[in-house]
Amino acid sequence: MPLHYTAIVLVLAQAAPVATAPIPVVTQQPTHGSSTSLTLLQDTPVELMAIAEVNTDKAQPGDLIRFRVNRAIEIGGRVAVPVGTPAFGQVTTAKDAGGLGKSGRMTAKLLRIQLGEIEIPLEGEMAAKGTGAGSAGVAILLTGIAGFFHRGNNAKIKAGEIVAGFVGSDVVLSPSSGT
Q1: How far is it, in rounded angstroms, from Cα 135 to Cα 147?
Q2: Which residues of the chain form beta strands (DSSP E)?
Q3: Of 61 and 151, more confident
Q4: Of the candidates 92, 38, 88, which has an alpha carbon nearest to the alpha carbon of residue 66?
Q5: Partners of 162 in the β-ladder
Q6: Model pLDDT for residues 129-162, shown as the tens digit of each residue
Q7: Is the pTM here over 0.70, yes or no?
Q8: Up-side HSE of residue 40: CA atoms within 13 Å toward CB?
Q9: What confidence score (pLDDT) does residue 140 get?
Q10: Scanning 104, 152, 170, 174, which has its CA 20 to 30 A from the CA of 142?
């Protein structure tokens, strides 16, 4: 029985580092001279944080959303994209909250990380819906005609909200790309 117990411990010990590993390490390619370029591979996960709140009270389709890289992306043990690097998304649909308790709705897509002069394309979408608006029917029953003026909540992406995305295509970074 102790042998079986030891095998389980070994499996758990091997599995633990995978869960805490940094964003995947990708390839290094030799270039002219002694420097190396780094290739950030498509589908590498990216963790972003919203800089400011965006809500359907003011947002319009086409509006830019500002993010920052929340977790550094490392390549070959080197930080390729540091925490704080600016990133951008775009509102694709925005419907303001309405009367009768109707909640607002918003969708957005990730666009890019701006690493100095290099644009790293991103893939990812998000959706938000206003919450806690309650039922218009209940509002009408409890308050009479005033229930018709009960307004729903706006959809929002809050400042500090964490958003996950992926690198949209392979990008070659030189050692001086901003790292």
Answers
A1: 9
A2: 28-30, 36-40, 45-50, 54-55, 64-69, 73-75, 78-81, 86-95, 105-115, 118-123, 125-129, 156-157, 162-167, 171-173
A3: 61
A4: 88
A5: 49
A6: 876 545 444 444 444 444 444 456 888 889 999 9
A7: no
A8: 29
A9: 42
A10: 104
